[in-house]
Amino acid sequence: MSKQYKKIFLTVGTTKFDLLCEYILTEPVLTALKNIGCKEITFQIGKSAVEPGIYEREGVIINMYRFKDSITEDIRNADLVISHAGAGTCLEVLEANKPLLVVVNEDLMDNHQLELAEQLQIDSHLYYCTCDTLISTLGVVDFSLLNPFPKADPTLLINYLDSVFTVTS
Amino acid sequence: MAGDDFFLSICVLLILTFLIRIIYLMLVIITGNCALIKTKTIRTVFCIGSGGHTTELLRFVNKLNMKKYQPRMYILADNDVNSEVKIRETEKDNNNFYLARIPRSRNVKQSYLSSVVSTLYATLYTIPIIFKLKPDIIFCNGPGTCIPVCVVAFLLRCLFLLDCRIVFIESICRVRTLSLTGKILQYFADIMIVQWPNMTETCFRAKYFGRLT
């Protein structure tokens, strides 16, 4: 039996992502989430036009809030994270070693952060989709096939800088 | 009017000398001769962008040898509140650091024409700050403050008033193309750092040392 993703954390950072917020509450999406084991959703909605609060739909508990000082705790508690394409969020989730599905907000044009999500999918660190393809993506992807994200390491750069910029005495 | 001719030729001569100095410096920078030897410490400036750029740069600052790279000055945009909190958190065990604020050269969604005007204003504002601190190295990684600071540093270097090196670190978000700041600074920065191996083909001078943050 494939892994069950009981607790799912959704986050849109400081953006407004109305489509995803409305979409998540619909029956087909919730069914797709239940199929991978979802029972609880924590949803950081940012500036999106939905009311924060605790909802129960299709037997899934959904806790929506706007902002917290830090989402680190919510990431750690989750079995799966679904996030917007923000670079900071993507990297934080990958560093926490959590399976990640990025939902691209197509209303944000000229979104250079998309470049990063694309590359991270090519390197098999995450999957990404749009709202339209969310259900089909949830149906086909296997999060256990994702590669762990290697740790960042500035040591080589710092050694180089120390060799170029030197101090006497 | 021999006096006028004399004055004019002096002006032409000065401008020519200045142009030759600019071209010479750009050649030095592009050929990668950026060694710097200092006594005791290296005076360092960090140009703080905003949001994710701030976080990226501060994570890097954390790994630097604080005894060598000091005093440290952080230059940030005047309407940037969040970055100051992050800087004070990074520097909580130190006191040899300073903050300076300059007008933002380009706000998100600002048109290119008005960006030119506001960048000029920010540049003038930056001159006394850089002149007073006389940094040896300037680190920058993103939009907001780094163009004015680097322009001022470069011009002061052309005028022999400052001898400093610019290190530009391109954001991890840039996988295939340089940012606007990166495109401009690739001709002025002594060291260009990128965080994806393919980017060394996009930018002829870029150096890749792995993912930094």
UniProtKB/TrEMBL annotation, chain A:
Enzyme Commission number: 2.4.1.141
InterPro entries recorded: Alg13-like, Glyco_trans_28_C
Entry keywords, A to Z: Endoplasmic reticulum, Glycosyltransferase, Transferase
GO MF, one annotated term: N-acetylglucosaminyldiphosphodolichol N-acetylglucosaminyltransferase activity
Keyword Transmembrane applies: no
Top-level EC class: transferase
GO (cellular component) term, any one: endoplasmic reticulum
Pfam families the record matches: Glyco_tran_28_C
The keyword Lipid biosynthesis appears for this protein: no
Cell compartment(s), UniProt: Endoplasmic reticulum
Residues in Glycosyl transferase family 28 C-terminal domain copies: 8-148
Principal place of residence: endoplasmic reticulum
UniProt-listed GO biological process terms: dolichol-linked oligosaccharide biosynthetic process
Record family assignment: Belongs to the glycosyltransferase 28 family.
PANTHER family, per the entry: GLYCOSYL TRANSFERASE-RELATED, N-ACETYLGLUCOSAMINYLDIPHOSPHODOLICHOL N-ACETYLGLUCOSAMINYLTRANSFERASE
Protein name: UDP-N-acetylglucosamine transferase subunit ALG13
Species, as recorded: Chrysodeixis includens
From TrEMBL, chain B:
Keywords: Endoplasmic reticulum, Membrane, Transmembrane, Transmembrane helix
InterPro entries to which the protein is assigned, alphabetical: Oligosacch_biosynth_Alg14
Membrane-crossing segments per the record: 6-30, 111-131, 137-162
Pfam families for the chain: Alg14
GO function term, MF aspect, one: N-acetylglucosaminyldiphosphodolichol N-acetylglucosaminyltransferase activity
GO biological process: dolichol-linked oligosaccharide biosynthetic process
Source organism, top-level taxon: Eukaryota
Location, primary (coarse class): endoplasmic reticulum
Cellular localization per UniProt: Endoplasmic reticulum membrane
Assigned GO CC terms: UDP-N-acetylglucosamine transferase complex
Membrane topology according to the record: Single-pass membrane protein
Recorded family membership: Belongs to the ALG14 family.
Protein name, UniProt field: UDP-N-acetylglucosamine transferase subunit ALG14
